[in-house]
Design a protein that fits this description.
single chain; alpha+beta; two-stranded parallel sheet; binds cobalamin; binds iron/sulfur cluster
């Protein structure tokens, strides 16, 4: 259905200001054409079997946002900060490390309703508009779309660095069925000669601008219950990351003065982050209670116990 009385520039300005008011630190707009420039690297990555532990990733859909949602013309992409200076994994005596992104409510439950409300408000102003909200789980190259929307670039660790705002932010996209003027894409990276993330990765998962999920700690503590290779088991035990891993971002110079998440939104520290390793839950009921409404909820208690055993040896 055609969108009536739409002034693209005014619509864009309104969407941007509403999204910023909803807590996104940066907003950009990108056209939803395919990812031609990325195709060769992406296909090589899959052909080398790098996606084997992440079976939900499909190269064909990833390369074209319209394969995901055919009406897509424009993507509003937002960067939503989550880290806080006082939330430092492993800072309490004897505690294990849980990534900053797990420190607070489940981000899907924060970003999705915000983008859905924005879509609904837009639809009441502009009847006929269609949209689709994507936060993490859709087969969409969110970081590449964010770079195309001018939010930043993919660093050598592959994450989206939003310039001086750093990389501690979730990405969310609202695909829209109308053509809006796109923002200037970021087509270069600003890592320069830095290789800090490549060097700090405890399991050798990173080469410049590409990651091997079969070596990343996050894959084995969050995504899959598959047995990690010995190098990853060793890295888990020595680094004490029990869920996710922030090392490649902690060393990044672009995160020296990042934009921080709102403490009122992300809440205080969870006992999972502050308890000493011996006091962490081992039983299913306690695990369920402590992970309720957090992004850790998708990790099963037996998976959590297996990780603890790998780190603590018992
Ligand atoms: C699968 C996935 C993972 C996997 C794989 C990560 C990866 N780098 O692909 C695992 C489980 C390891 C993971 C870990 C993490 N993730 Co994750 N993840 C995703 C997810 C769902 C899909 C990503 C994807 O499509 N990967 C597929 C590969 C092929 O993509 P790619 O690496 O960008 O592919 C390019 C490169 O490989 C490059 N390339 C290949 N070879 C070569 C060679 C050369 C020379 C060059 C130049 C380039 C090049 O070309 C490809 C095409 O452009 C996204 C959400 C989404 N829908 O986008 C979140 C997402 C990327 N994750 C996120 C987060 C927060 C994390 C963690 C920080 C969580 C944590 N603290 O533990 C870690 C960070 C690890 C890291 N350094 O990336 C955020 C990142 C936010 C940001 N600022 O960028 C996202 C966007 C979720 C969100 N909505 O906020 N994640
Ligand atoms: S998240 Fe940790 S294990 Fe994964 S690439 Fe970054 S430093 Fe390496
Ligand atoms: S640590 Fe250095 S190389 Fe890695 S992403 Fe940051 S600036 Fe780039």
């Amino acid at each position: 259905m055609p969108v009536e009385h739409l002034d693209p520039l005014a619509f864009k300005a309104w969407l941007r200001s509403e999204a910023l008011a909803a807590g996104f630190a940066r907003i950009g707009f990108a056209a939803c054409h395919g990812f031609q420039a990325e195709a060769a690297h992406l296909q090589a990555w899959f052909q080398e079997g790098r996606g084997s532990l992440l079976p939900y990733l499909d190269p064909t859909t990833l390369l074209d946002p319209r394969a995901l949602w055919p009406p897509a013309r424009t993507a509003l992409v937002g960067f939503f900060p989550y880290a806080r200076p006082e939330a430092v994994p492993g800072s309490e005596p004897g505690s294990l490390k849980l990534s900053r992104y797990l420190w607070g409510p489940d981000y899907h439950m924060l970003l999705k309703p915000r983008l859905t409300r924005l879509l609904e408000a837009a639809q009441t102003r502009w009847p006929g508009l269609e949209g689709r909200v994507c936060v993490d789980t859709a087969p969409l190259l969110e970081r590449q779309l964010a770079a195309r929307a001018g939010l930043g670039w993919q660093g050598k660790h592959t994450l989206l660095i939003a310039g001086k705002n750093g990389s501690w932010g979730f990405l969310g996209a609202l695909l829209l069925s109308v053509d809006l003027p796109a923002d200037e894409p970021v087509t270069t990276e600003f890592c320069g000669t830095c290789t800090a993330c490549l060097e700090v990765c405890p399991s050798g998962a990173l080469e410049p601008f590409r990651l091997d999920p079969a070596r990343c700690l996050t894959t084995y503590t969050i995504e899959t219950e598959a047995e990690p290779p010995p190098a990853v088991v060793e890295a888990l035990a020595s680094s004490r990351w029990a869920a996710g891993c922030d090392l490649c971002q902690e060393v990044c110079p672009w995160n020296r003065a990042p934009v921080w998440g709102d403490p009122a939104l992300w809440g205080g520290p969870s006992p999972l982050h502050t308890r000493s390793a011996e006091d962490l839950p081992r039983g299913a009921a306690q695990w369920r209670k402590l992970t309720r409404r957090t992004a850790l909820r998708r990790v099963r208690d037996r998976h959590w116990r297996a990780t603890l055993t790998r780190i603590l040896g018992s």
